[in-house]
């Protein structure tokens, strides 16, 4: 029997790294990394969130997210403002420059993904996404069990 780790886990990891390298190579001309783009994209979907909420949404620890936000702020793509509700907390907003970058990069990224999925039917894509969602749900359920046992 073939190892599930090798046939699923390692292959997903391998393809993920290839996609990230492909995107990184193509994003260089916009002077933004895939992690920065992912963070900016999440902010564009819900502007004015706090760092803790954003860290959870982009699946980054606080320290990593702070470094990403520092870079995005230096590039004038985002700005941090003190929360009026909690003075210890900052809310992150996309700047007009960040919104302009999104107008350039988003269509470009969409065209890259059209290249990546070339020759794959919509049904296959939907099945793939459904399968990934089930992976995520199963992992989440197992993480909850581990967290309950550690409490």
UniProtKB/TrEMBL annotation:
Keyword tags: DNA-binding, Transcription, Transcription regulation
Keyword DNA damage attached: no
Organism for this UniProt entry: Clostridium algifaecis
Pfam families noted in UniProt: MarR
Name assigned to this protein: DNA-binding MarR family transcriptional regulator
Residue ranges annotated for the HTH marR-type domain, each copy included: 1-137
Lineage: Bacteria, Bacillati, Bacillota, Clostridia, Eubacteriales
SUPFAM superfamilies listed in its UniProt record: Winged helix' DNA-binding domain
GO molecular function: DNA binding
InterPro entries, per database record: ArsR-like_HTH, HTH_MarR-typ, WH-like_DNA-bd_sf, WH_DNA-bd_sf
PROSITE patterns referenced in this protein's UniProt entry, alphabetically: HTH_MARR_2
Superkingdom of origin: Bacteria
Keyword Transcription assigned: yes
């Amino acid at each position: 029997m073939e190892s599930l780790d090798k046939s699923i886990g390692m292959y997903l990891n391998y393809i993920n790294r290839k996609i990230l390298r492909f995107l990184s190579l193509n994003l260089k001309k916009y002077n933004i990394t895939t992690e920065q783009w992912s963070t900016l994209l999440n902010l564009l979907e819900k502007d004015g969130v706090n760092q803790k909420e954003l860290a959870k949404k982009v699946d980054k620890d606080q320290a990593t997210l702070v470094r990403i936000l520092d870079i995005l702020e230096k590039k004038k793509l985002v700005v941090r403002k003190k929360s009026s509700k909690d003075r210890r907390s900052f809310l992150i907003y996309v700047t007009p420059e960040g919104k302009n970058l999104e107008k350039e990069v988003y269509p470009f990224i969409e065209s890259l993904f059209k290249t990546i999925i070339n020759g794959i039917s919509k049904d296959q894509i939907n099945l793939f996404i459904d399968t990934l969602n089930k992976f995520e749900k199963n992992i989440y359920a197992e993480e909850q069990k581990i967290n309950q046992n550690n409490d």
